Amino acid sequence: MTSKPDHEAGANLPYGRHSVDEEDVSEVVRVLSGDWLTTGPEIRRFEQALEEFLDVPHCVAVSSGTAALHCAMQACDVGPGDEVLVPALTFAASANAALYVGATPIFVDVEPDTLLVDVASVSERITERTKAIVAVDYAGQMADYDGLNQIARERGIAIVADRCHSIGARHARMSTGSIATASAFSFHPVKHITSGEGGVVALADPERAAAARRFRNHGITTDHRERDRLVTHSYDMVDLGYNYRLTDLQAALGRSQLRRLPGWLARRREIAARYDTMFAGMPWLVPLSKRVDRDHAYHIYVVALKLDRLTCDRDKIFEELRANGIGANVHYVPVYLHSFYRKRLGCQPGLCPVAEVEYRRILTLPLYPAMTESDIERVVATVDRICRKYSCD
Ligand SMILES: *Cc1c(COP(=O)(O)O)cnc(C)c1O
What we know:
- The structure is a single chain.
- By secondary structure, this protein is of the alpha/beta class.
- It has 15 helices and ten strands.
- The protein has helices at about 20-30, 40-55, 65-75, 95-100, 120-125, 145-155, 175-180, 205-215, 225-230, 250-260, 260-280, 315-325, 340-345, 355-360, 375-390, and strands at about 60, 85, 105-110, 130-135, 160, 180-185, 200-205, 285, 300-305, 360-365.
- Helix 1 runs antiparallel to helix 10 (about 250-260) and helix 3 crosses helix 4.
- The protein is globular and about 75 Å long.
- Pyridoxal-5'-phosphate binds near residues 90, 91 and 199.
């Protein structure tokens, strides 16, 4: 007999989980037996579906969210000598993209209750070398694009929106194309919809969109299919680009998934509202704040532990949750505390004090559309039982 964790009640609940149905499978199989496995008609169909869903003039599908961020930096003419402001609490890729184009990421702090980029910290750290601001829609809630645009517009600074958490969230007045110069989305399996790996850059400006299109294909002006159509073999490489192409198989999967996104968003919001209600009375933690004027797509559900009410640290609660089948996680360690950033940029603890304090008390709890009411209750009951065990009172 194997020993089970005490109170074991069912299978492990991951913090996120993709969902692929029969229709997704048959879409991929259809493409697999067709003429184009990559750079074929599925790419444009997926892009058009995204342009419609996101209400943006141009979508450029690429091989990952990270590639989308790199393309966005390029499309915003960010380069050597430039500074890019990046919130400290995000996935490393948000900052890495600035380094890819030879710019320097300058880390800015976050608001303690939403973990969204703090506009005051942005104002403080702007210099005449600031070329772009990366806005991260942390957890799925829109960043303060009104505040950011006010600062950016008057100085001609680009906004690169890292919207890998927030597909489906909308700004009350501005469109996807107007909140940011370029926006990056990811279709990694842990995100709202997946294409296996994949991403998209969304932009309003046709020239920047053309630059992003070239960038994903080695900096070449036409693709293979266009040359076939024009009956020509010649092409020109005008910039240094990469192979960031998405395959047609992936595009077909992504477009199929997109059809279910509205339903999934509704379910994510429902689950988050259930959590909010059930956690409201608990003295040991507080869910992140939701701004009333802001939309939220709930990529992840994050709570902050009140460490002064507990006799242990966050990692102890994390370990106990994992031991009880609850797939808790932590998003994220402040990027500049990674050893690479300490070495490369000489970053030291203390750079973004709010991010560092909040990092030590945040936990991401399971949230995905297929969760049942009893899954939700099990998460809340397990959190309650573990916190009770380490309660100061
Ligand atoms: C997932 C994610 C990325 C990177 O996306 P990939 O598709 O994995 O390359 C970048 N930024 C944030 C905030 C993310 O969550």
